[in-house]
Amino acid sequence: MGDPATRRPSIVVQRDFVSHVPEYHRRRSLSIQQQSDSVDIGTSLSEFWAGIAIQEESPRAVKVGIAVHDGTYSVDFAVHRISLDDDQEKDENSDWIADHLITQLSVYRKEHVCKILGAGILLDLHKKSPSLCSRLWLELDMVPIVVESNPVLQVQRISKNVPKLLNNVDEIADSAARKCLALYAPTKQPRLAISYRNQVEVDLAGMIQLTTLDDYEKSVRPPTWRAVQKYVKDVVDRKLRIVFFSATPQGGGVALMRHALLRFLDLQGVNVEWFVPKPRPDVFRITKTNHNILQGVVPPDVRATDGHLAKIKQWIIDNAERYWLGEEGPLRAPEEGGADVVIIDDPQMPELIPIARKMSPERPIIFRSHIEVRDDLVREDGSAAQHVWRNMWSSIKQADIFLSHPVRSFVPNDVRKETLGWLPATTDWLDGLNKTMDEWDLQYYFHVLRQTCQAQGIPQLAYPQRGFFTQIARFDPSKGIPDVIESYAKFCKLMKDEPKRNIQQLVLCGHSSVDDPDGSLIYDQTMNLILRHHPDLIEDIVVVRLGPSDQILNAIMSLCTVALQLSTREGFEVKVSEALHKGKPVIATLAGGIPLQVEHGKSGFLVRRGDHDAVAQHLYDLVNDYDLYERMSEYAMTHVSDEVQTVGNALSWLYLASSLAGGKTLKPNERWINDMAREAAGEPYEDGEPRLPRHLST
């Protein structure tokens, strides 16, 4: 029989792919990649979608079909027969299937010089090989969408005289490819799904399967995982319904965190939902202005009128009455089918708190503030900040728990100490922003970036002939973009005697959000600053607003030399931890929660706001001192806390729900929720385990 570890399944190719890319085109594309140190990185790849299906021929054999679709027509297919091993465990056979399909698709994309954006995976195949979807996502950067086959219905629509089942696995695979394609938007991204009651259906209500629980377990340290499982069991056993409310379903940090959190909790079987209001651009203009007022980044004469504040309140009331107060709606009392725990996850929506309190006086309500609220401005009599805050506080004070980024100066003195807990923003190591991508996919996204720059009429990134620094952030008045440009200009002066190829470029980029109307204004101000004050750097600074593809930002962060975050005002800015996780030294300001993430002199450098000379010198040192760079890169990569990752975030939310639901009480008393959760689970932090510094939160 042979060693089970070395046995492989028998593969019979019943029909192989027959389409071919012209040999000249293929050789030319591969040649460009191999010469990437002498030409601009970025390969033009044909964009395809795939469908993958499976049929059992016998208990020991399956047929798999792979169909390839170009967005208009099917262009190719293959059918392979895989003989399985009765002596092998079920998981090993399923791994064989996944291994074979991953290999076939990997070879296909290189032979055909293409990028397969997504794949329709037949439900039967997903059950047979549960690891396939996450491997397609993590290894080949393909979005796997699980679809069902309904051949009987399809046949009945055609004719009553044909057989009742379609037995050809290639036809079923082709159907899966078309179903996958139908779920894509013109942006070549899966559509955002908003369903009944304006509920955000994360990952197309679970049709997209990016990860497995094994993937998440490997992404954190064992104590974190054990603590999470304790609270998962309690929340699931008690059948708790947990509901989040926030202003937007996509485009900002809150939305990114919620997509990641619900993706993970859905795999755990937790009943958690997320609702958003119907968007109103005029209201978003007001809420963004209020945000800037509370941070102190607007001129003194900018104020929110009583009419503005009344408009926000009415917007929330209208949405609550229309979507969330009906039968079994999330704001109904728990005994009427409503949520057991209500979480208001956005300072734009505090007016929901009194509504939720009225519907169920004893139900726990959590309010999370993710912005800086300057207490000095709030306490100033007659100030614009005081006016906005008092309006918000009249609703917020009715919540049981007030969560804030772990910076004491972000929280006005009105907030009672016993209700206040610290909870940082988080990211996800397995999503499109952070996962590791291979060279093939990085080249594809750099080509997309190059096309975007060309379409916007801005300079091209010259990587790899020249390295580059980056700041990835919204075009927002608090992000310190002018400071980044001035610091870079000083760096270039320090490097004036070096040839151009040795001087890094600067990339300023970010996504936009529907509730952020400042983006275009700040972008224009940035371009004008470069044109008027640094015309000699026009070809060296790439300022680009990007579409909704997280992987483009991932590619930029993966290949940059140093990440910058020179915010003048900041909440937590988890983009800093994302850079550190990729081994990128970070130069950042002493603003908000940023100092909690960067260890000065170890994983990066912290500077005072507006200290352009210090930033320039640190950039110069990192570029010219190889040992310093490598030491910082290694330290950064290995010292990121689980707290800033999805599983660590889930731990805090599960602990809060478990501790508050059913009439229980909880008093954080200005403690980190993560610490409380770990201790209550019997998994306190161990010596040497990375965690964010606690002393900086007060």
UniProtKB/TrEMBL annotation:
Pfam families: Glycos_transf_1, TreT_GT1
Keywords annotated in UniProt: Carbohydrate metabolism, Glucose metabolism, Glycosyltransferase, Transferase
GO biological process: one example: glucose metabolic process
InterPro entries: Glyco_trans_1, Trehalose_Metab_GTase, TreT_GT1
Keyword rRNA processing included in the entry's annotation: no
MF annotations from Gene Ontology: glycosyltransferase activity
Ranges where the Trehalose synthase N-terminal domain occurs: 245-405
Keyword Transcription attributed: no
Ranges of residues in domain Glycosyl transferase family: 465-636
Assembly information from the UniProt record: Homodimer.
Entry's family note: Belongs to the glycosyltransferase group 1 family. Glycosyltransferase 4 subfamily.
Designated name of the protein: Glycosyl transferase family 1 domain-containing protein
Organism: Rhinocladiella mackenziei CBS 650.93
